[in-house]
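Everyone, study these two lines:
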Amino acid sequence: MNRWGNVRVLLIGLACSVPVESWACAVCGVPKSAATRGILPAVVLMLVLLGIVFGAFIRFFIRANRSKHQSGGLDRVRTSS
């Protein structure tokens, strides 16, 4: 057996040794439980916040690129020489 065959056997063994209950999260595990009703809004809020942060990050680079092109870059900057 080659090296990749050993790695595959190890990964399959690790995947089979994990209990079945750990594969499902609280949101999709038991839909009517109190934990699911509590965690679902938190998951939605985290996704919204993540979208806002990524949007602001992308907007920063778009605005920086636009201002660089409008100002002419560093070509028109005078130095003290």
Notes: The chain has a mean pLDDT of 77. The radius of gyration is 26 Å.
